[in-house]
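Entry 14. Ran structure prediction on the chain below.
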Amino acid sequence: MTRADAQAAVTAHWSARAPLFDGVASHVAQAELWHAVLEAAFAADGPRDVVDLGSGTGACALIAAALGHRVRGYDASPGMVAAARAAARAAGVEAGFETALIRDIPAADACADIVTLRNVLWTLEQPMEALHTAHRLLRPGGRLVVSDGLWSVAPQYRSTYALELAARLPLHDGITEPAMRRMLEEAGFATIRPWQQLFPASPYPGDVPIFVLSAEKA
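Output, structure tokens:
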């Protein structure tokens, strides 16, 4: 399986899931909590330029737009992009969504004040590449907000890829907060702060250990 084959398989998987994805999603079941946690993590005192990488159905993008930020979301799955656009219309918020691989984001360097990456890194063959892209897109002092979890704790709530595909994804079983901190430092980020403590309990069924971290472009 080539890298292109792996990406095509991941994209097809998420496009197939897109129509029903929000029915079981944490950002829908725990919408008010996610809104409060992301608002705190953004730490913005006014409208900012936000880029949401691996946007999916628009969880982070829609919250950012509701907070008054200028938002662009990108996802490799056309099905997810269509779902995100529909969700934005239903919510009555303005957010633009485009189909693009994270490594091919059609956005200029230093175009964003905030970049979000929620539950994306575990689906990538080269997760560090996404962090470097986020770093490139941010202005000096800009903020990355990244969230993920140790999905192997509750596999019934995790996507199940074919074994050959899963073997190509280094974070397929999830990621711990200490490991994420090391990756952020390696990618050139500093001032790393946790925000998951604002949840009264894990927002995912099965008490999946998760993190929500903010980090600044040095």
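The longest strand covers residues 138-149. Will compare against last week's run tomorrow.
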